[in-house]
Amino acid sequence: MIQRQEEEAREGGERHATTRPLLAHARRLGRRRWRGLVWLQGATEACHGAAVELWRAGGWRAPLWVAPEGSQQVEETHWLVPARARTRLGGEHDLLVIDAVSCGAGFDPDAVAALAGTLCAGGLLVLMTPDDWGARPDADYVRLAEHPWRPEALSSRYLARLARLLAGADEVIRWRAGDVPCLPRLAVREVHSGVTVADGDCLTADQAQAVARLGRLRRRRPLVITADRGRGKSAALGIACARWLAAGESEVLVTAPRPAAVDSLFERLAALCPDGERQEHAFITDRGAVRFVAPDALAELARQGELGGAGRLLLVDEAAAIPAGLLGEWLEAFPRIAFATTVHGYEGSGRGFALRFRERLARTTPEWRGLHLAEPIRWASDDPLEPLVHRLLMLDAEPPEPEARADGRPERLSRDELAVDEPRLRALFGLLVQAHYRTTPSDLRLLLDGPGLAVGALMADDAPLGVVLTADEGGFDAALAERVARGERRPRGHLMAQSLAAHAGSREALTGRLRRVVRIAVAPERRREGLGQALIEAELARAREDGRDLLGASFGAEPGLIAFWRRLGFRTVRLGLTRETATGEHALMVARATGEGGERLLATLTERFQRALPGLLAFELRDLAPEVAAALLSEGDAPAFTDDDRQDAEDVAAGHREPALARPALQALVRHALARGVPPEDADLALLVAWGFQGLAGEALARRLGVPGRRQAIARLRQAVGVLLQELA
To answer: Which of 185, 191, 237, 187 shows the shortest CA–CA distance to 210?
Structure first.
């Protein structure tokens, strides 16, 4: 009995010998308002035992265990599956345990990026991994394993890179399960005197300035607030909402990619308005209300004229993750509007948002103003964890500024070399981030380890001027292709091939060998110089050399993008019937033949699409932007514009003929105008497309034109017919 007690005491002392230094180090971090990363390596059971001991010994207020399956030693309320990481945004934790060591567990980049921002000062992020982490893919690679690949057959360059960076980072706490942790020496810190915040509701001077600027929001003078995570921008919106309600504002509308993104806004609002009540997606007081409206619903209500108009106020949070087209619509619909967005984060790129949207802002509302929040709230400005996580996950990747007139040479880059060339990898990924608003941390893993993926670039010395990612698709056997086309199977991946089979009925798209452009990006300073064209022409040549049938791409249907691909000889083969949640636009697929089999396949696909297009525009695609509809109609063969058609059109223009009775002639006029080179974005042409092909009439047509009623709308329609007839005379 005595011997057993002595053994237990000795074991307890050994356990405390490993956790006691960690807890003391966490206290030292807390005094500096810093956070730390603990890299715990070893066998699964040993890592779990060490992490559980730390969990129990620390007296943590809000710990979180992140793993696909719970642990008997961890309360269920403190356990979270990685896929639900976003549900904790806005919350706070002082201990995060990330399980990447268990048999069914893996490293989820998006989950780690999202949760790292919830760790408060003095907190520890414990990452559990095997000793040989990076030697092979982990369980999370199942999301990369497209048919016919198996997860274990993929490369693991991404994980090897993470392990290499962690091993070389001086600020990391290294802990081999069963041993005493190796603690880093804390850097000498400069002492800064605290800044007094005059606004008692705000925690930093930056946040106070944001609230003050929001309070002075004026018509047609939008405010754009940018910040890294943890700077209190959403809370600033909440404080401003409370003050607007107190000042007599009856309603403030709020939108964001997800309701969870504005939890901080509503929490701060509730704290400042104790007489109010949170009701699902709204906060109601006797004075007024703040309501959350999802982006798709907001866009539809604004188009119908039910939201927006004089005096209305809209706040857009996480704007970088919302399509620029929707932001532009709201900019015109809401006189008072503010945008807030994360610059470097797990979703959306603030830099990309600024690059795409600044031109629209300057054109529509030249008096817009910007404000950047730099001072963090949950941790000190010199916290070592934030730059470490940014470096590991490339959250702060920025494209280099290329020399003004340097010419680029097309290259196919080795992913083995990219994985160990950090400067070049960061430059390439930075280009992708600024070009696409939904780039996530897991996209870096896709770039390095996605099967069938290739990286092309235009390089000027060591600086990338442009980058293109392509993925090979198709090659299914006939039996599998048939089952996929019938909807009986849905193998992972092969986006374009499977879409053409399911929606266009093409088995040949599955049995053929396709190559899809996944992403393409050009340095912002070098756009409109033909670099994008050079990238695609190089890929066309490679596709021919590799025996591919088609080179294709999928993107949100937008006139500028459609024009780019059409100039390169690509034809439309599919258009989605509904707007994509991610883009707010209809997904468009284009292709160009790169082999003899591809010529036949492309001819069939384009003929089927053009045959279906008029009927789709009249029904399912009635809400498609008329400029996009015109661009798609221009790809078809134009019917003859006969003398009888011209006479009917002239009768409409002169005011003698009811336009509806001459619809076939006006449809022929549209196609004739497109064939003669009238651009799809021409306002008169777009009006006739909306009326003649998409059935926009009556009050809906009047609202689109901004006129009082049907009579004025028909008069404008007649005018458009006359203008086109004159242009084609």
So the answer is: 237
Q: Mean per-residue pLDDT for 47-74?
A: 93
pLDDT tens, 393-419? 998 888 877 766 667 889 999 999 999
pLDDT at 408: 82
What was the pLDDT predicted at 397?
Answer: 87
- 349, with CB counted inside 10 A (0-12, 13-18, 19+), is buried
Cα 489–491–494 angle (5° rounding)?
A: 125
* Residue range 246-304, pLDDT digits in tens: 999 999 999 998 888 898 899 999 999 999 999 989 999 999 999 999 998 998 898 88
- Please tell me the distance from the alpha carbon of residue 250 to that of residue 670, in angstroms, as a whole number: 46
Burial code of 189-225, b = ≥16 C-beta within 10 A, e = fewer? eeeeeeeebeeebbbbbbbbbbbbbbeebeeebbbbb
CA distances from 275 to 13, 242, 271, 283 (A): 53, 11, 10, 10
Burial class (CB in 10 A: 0-12, 13-18, 19+), 37: buried
Q: Is 183 exposed, middle or buried (0-12, 13-18, 19+ CB in 10 A)?
A: middle
- Which phi and psi angles does 580 have, rounded to 5°? -70, 140
Helix-, strand-, coil-residue percentages of the chain, each rounded to 5: 45, 20, 35
Evaluate if residue 234 carries a pLDDT over 60. yes
Backbone angles phi, psi at 222, to 5 degrees: -60, 150
Residue 540 confidence (pLDDT): 98
Nearest-5° Cα angle at 257, 254 to 258: 85
Q: Bridge-partner residues for 97, per DSSP?
A: 65, 126
Supply the DSSP symbol for 107: -
End-to-end CA distance of the chain: 108
Peptide bond into 559 cis (omega under 30): no
Phi, psi for residue 370 in degrees, rounded to 5: -120, 155
pLDDT at 90 over 80: no
Angle at 702 between CA 700 and CA 704, to 5 degrees: 70
Q: Kind and range of the H or E element at 160?
A: helix 157-168
Would you call 342 helix, strand, or coil by DSSP? strand
* DSSP code at position 83: G
Other CB atoms within 10 A of residue 76 CB: 8
Confidence of residue 479 (pLDDT cuts 50, 70, 90): very high
Pull the structure tokens for residue 310.
């004089």
Q: What is the pLDDT of residues 202-224, one digit of tens each?
A: 999 999 999 999 999 999 899 99
Give the CA distances from residue 80 to residues 53, 83, 346, in Å, rounded to whole numbers and listed in that order: 19, 8, 18
| Long-range contacts (CB closer than 8 Å, 24 or more residues apart) made by 388-391 | 388/37, 388/169, 388/171, 388/172, 389/37, 389/112, 389/113, 389/116, 390/344, 391/165, 391/169
CA pair distance 139, 320, nearest whole angstrom: 30
In the chain, the amino acid numbered 582 is A
The residues near 301 (Cβ < 8 Å, ≥ 6 apart) are 293, 307
Number of H helices and number of E strands within the chain? 26, 21
Nearest of 441, 471, 249, 485 to residue 346 by alpha carbon: 441
pTM value is 0.89
pLDDT at 582: 59
Asked if the model's pLDDT at residue 350 lies above 60, the reply is no
At 15, list the tokens: 């356990």
Nearest to 120 by CA among 271, 229, 241, 283: 229
**Cα three-residue angle 92-93-99, rounded to 5 degrees:** 135
> What is the C-alpha to C-alpha distance for residues 444 and 447, in angstroms, rounded to an integer?
5
Angle at 554 between CA 548 and CA 559, to 5 degrees: 125
**CA–CA distance, 47 with 566 (Å, rounded to integer):** 56
The answer to whether residues 212 and 327 touch, using CB atoms and an 8 Å cutoff, is no
Give the model's pLDDT for residue 275: 93
